[in-house]
Write a structure and sequence with these properties.
Blueprint lengths: L1 H25 L19 E2 H11 L4 H21 L46 H5 L36 H20 L7 E2 L1 H6 L2 H5 L5
Antiparallel strand pairs: 1-2
Helix pairs in contact: 1-5
Length: about 220
Amino acid sequence: MKNLLERYGALLQEVDRWFNGCIQRHGDRIVCNRGCSACCRGLFDITILDALYLRSGIDALPEEVQRSLRLKAADRLSALTAINPSFVEPWILNRIPEDEWEELMPEEDETPCLLLAEDGSCLVYGQRPMTCRLNGIPLFDTSGEAVMDEWCTLNFCDVDAALMEDLRHPFLDLFAQELLLFRELTRRLLGEAVSELDTFIPAAVLLDAGMIRGLRRH
């Protein structure tokens, strides 16, 4: 498991290098950077691979910080279970119909991420999920294909980002590598490879591999 998470960490670092390169070349057009938490609001789905990698960072925090996070996470998850009684430990979104996900993560939710410190910085910045690393600036594959249709309106607001080839990155290949790692993870934990297993950041605070193994089919 440790080796697999280290390989995923290397993949995430590739995203960071791309992002940092964009900052170096176009910093005057990018508001997003370490310390900005404007988008760290509400809930969004992350993969179990992200959740376990995130948990590795949480486990390295001081014990008093971990205790506080566990209490906050338990409260948030209890509130979600009250909304949808089927959303229970180990808090896997794919166990409920996808059309019920939206009520758990409404767009208007402005609740700050529980992993934000008082100064707005991320407590586990080095282990933050893939989505957090990709959020904010235009995502175009080297082929020119738009990987996401939207980005922060504060960034690249005066140019057509689709025409800026130096923003591009082989994202489709990167996502293919991510999927291979994810399927390897689920094969180890569940005895079979699956392509989707999602949860929320509050669940990652409490989740461990043993809980996920409990989903094995008997």
